[in-house]
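During the no-cost extension, the postdoctoral fellow (Dr. R.K.) reprocessed legacy sequence entries with the updated structure-token encoder. One reprocessed record is reproduced below for audit purposes.
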Amino acid sequence: MTAAARVLELLAERGHTLAAAESLTGGLVAAELTSVPGASRSFRGSVTAYATALKRDLLGVDGTLLGERGAVDPEVALQMAAGVRHRLGADWGVSTTGVAGPEPQDGQAVGTVYVAVAGPAGAGKVAALRLNGDRAEIRSESVRSVLELLRDELSGNARAQDTEQNGGN
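Re-encoded structure tokens follow.
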């Protein structure tokens, strides 16, 4: 089972929905999710905010943060995930931001990527990646990584819910 199929299965089991905010992946997360039959039960949609101004204007990323650190930053990734979750009315939001190459961007090396998840509990999780390879490989690995991060968050929540339902045993 692919990571996308597993994520969608976990979301459907909970009756939860997902939205994606993508920068360097340019819609590849959405494409991976929608390649799974029945994705529409849980996947609400995505925003491809390639331009920094769109991260601010559409996703609500703090403009001062963007001005000081640039778009390739862990806090930007978290704010993108929370913003798309809010904008599209989803239980969960994921995001990707980084440098796929061929040139560095905003002082960040090619292969510097941040992926994030924001969930219904309000807290978020971000993973910093240092990826090797060409542009296509970096983008592909970014998609895989954000879906795995979400899968781990959903699996962790399932274990916590099971523990609560079983009286902590």
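The chain has six helices and five strands. Residues 159-169 have pLDDT under 50 and may be disordered. The remaining legacy entries will be reprocessed before the final report is submitted.
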